[in-house]
Amino acid sequence: MDDLLSIGEFARRSGLSVSALRFYDRERVLVPTVVDPATGYRRYTIDQVRTGVVIASLRRVQMSVDDIRTIVELGDDTGSVVDLLDLHLGRLEDGFAQARREIAAVKARLADDAAAIEVVVSAPGLLRALDAVRFAAGDDPAYSMLHAIQLRLTPQECRVVATDRYRLAMHRTACLTANVPEAGAASYVRDLVVPLAWIDEVMEVLETQDDSRVTLHASGGRVRVDCGPVGLETRTLDVVFPDVDTVLGAAPTGTATTIDLGQLRKTEDARTLLVDDDTHVNRAFLLEAVTAAGGQATLRLDGPIAPLAIHGIDGAMSLLMPIRPEDEDANEVGRA
Asked: Could you tell me which residue ranges the HTH merR-type domain spans (predicted)?
């Protein structure tokens, strides 16, 4: 018994605290060689110190208890241990990369709140862009963050996006002039999420004003649109808008089919439409998308569960999620 270590001595040699040793005993990760039945005192062998040191290292890199237990049980199976360590390291690196992105986003937001950007666009171009996406904006009370439009301002263009989770619409209009912060001006990007009610006011002004140019100014968490003598201002929304770049980047690129409003109006009795051999979509949603695209659109599909892409001739683009058919006799549209 003299060659056994008390829990305090073992803690000092292994780098694990006494409370940690008691925890790993309960979890059957590092069990003492002897537990005094009268006092409950734990005793460890010298050989267990190496295991304790390994556990302390894994604990510091936030490995789960289950994975630590597995590594201890694997013992001298070095290959399997290394595989587990590499897997955990990969998770740590992914997490660290995500942390970098989140911190960078916070820094960018703080900088954006202070910086000012001003772009001038065509009034008809902005109205067309807003009109092309307005139909896809959300109205579900459970997703109030989607009762909005995302404006992306760059020195080159103003991109407009709306989504209600079932569909997404995007259009853009070119910037005639732009004043952006000097640092990284060529690649400057400013994302603004603005209330839908404000967008409706802007569209009403654009429809009634004769001025051909519109100025968009963003600074300090606010955005203003000036069109002729009329100026409309709102506070930007502090919400997490969906990652539309990823969605748009994965848009279907399959075989193209042309469809127009005349074809769709012939299907007025249907709720769902068959746009491919096994792809059904909501008729009302498709009708809105084709209308927003300008009355004639190109459809692209990559499969029965992938979104349907609707492209207008002027650059309007929307994505529509497929649905389960309500019956076997859904009307067929968009056949080549």
From this structure: 4-74
